Amino acid sequence: MNGDFFSTVKEIVHYGGSTFVALVAMSVYMMTDGFFVGNWVGVEGLEAMALIFPITMAFAAIGVLFETGGSAVVSEQIGAGRKQLAEKIMRSSYLFIVVIGIIVAIVGNIFIGPLLQFLSEDASEQYIIELAIMFLRITLCGVPFLLTIYVTGAFMRCIGKPEHVFLCVGSSVFSNIILDALFIIVFGWGLKGAAIATLMAQAVGAFVAFWYFKFSRQKFSDSTGFGSFEYIFNEIKIGAGFGVATLMACFIEYFLNAVVLEYNAADLLAMVAVSNIILSFVFLPLNGLDTGIQPLISKLYASKEERHCLRVMRLGFFLTVVLTFAIYALLMIFTEELTRIFMSSNEPITPEMITFLRAMFVLQPFVGLYTWLSGIMAALEDEWRNLVVSLVPLVVQVPAIWFLPKILPIEYISLNYSINDVAEAVVALILIRSLFKEKKISFKKIFNAR
Q: pTM of the prediction?
């Protein structure tokens, strides 16, 4: 009994722990630009980053889609003993996402100006909008590199080398820190320097990914060629829920920025930027843990090791709960101290700013439940339920963003996130019960599994 327990914990740490560390590193990556911009460019730079964030989330949505879908499809083939086919699918995925990345870079550069100019016609806000457009025109060129990093992390976990995810992510993070300091502090390039640093850091991460699979002897079969488009389509179906969820967050952030500007509260845009950075420390570690475990669940389920699979689900839940409440305590107790990291000591932190942040995170523990449930649905290749959950923010957050400023001070507009956290968790819980019924699984079996 104890042997089963400790061996399962070891597996979870092997798969989930390394991905958790890699996505914590990704959180540091996102924090780096905010830290250097907030302290050496100023509040205007943070306000521009608030406008930038929804667009960068759209890039991430594509990466999350193929990361989640590719992980499930490739893990299933490996679990069933079809390693040559798995390797062909990986090659097809790389080719497909590079093409998609190039298309996004070209189309994005055409439409990014009109998209951001639509937010406001106020002359006093045009400088911030122009800064955001400049940043995005540069970083759009890095989308193919960014997508390569996302998918490489998924495939490293699939081939049983999750600890190597940090090679790809860590190289990009370290490069971004060095280049941000060089371009922003030493050269004085401001937000443009942050954009160039981001582009170059993503290129470094993509190069490491290419080297890893091409030259580091990580091939595990002697296959050649590509998998059929059918598998790519299956990846898209499985990852669609996560991709759409990220796109919904992109649209909601865009709408939130527009409402904040409509209420002449441009000073809150700096808090929107800070909250997005801090939010990455909430979501990415949780997502890292559950995404890391996902290929393990897929393999165990495909190989019909039910008891082992249920133990992994149960222990994954308890680890998620512990991590969720640890992050929650940190956010609520040290709100002002976390905010100060991203703002120069010359800039005041007002009570309204603190209220904005705490209102966003007040019901954050529900995020852990939703993340765990969504991870299980993806691992069991249930695409439509995750897609339904991903549409919840559209139904909940958009009306809340419009309505809350009409009855409360503008800083309480961030309550829309907390309301949505509860709604997503409830909907995911309802839907997964029907999935468990189909798979002959139940919460009772999960929590009683030994």
A: 0.72
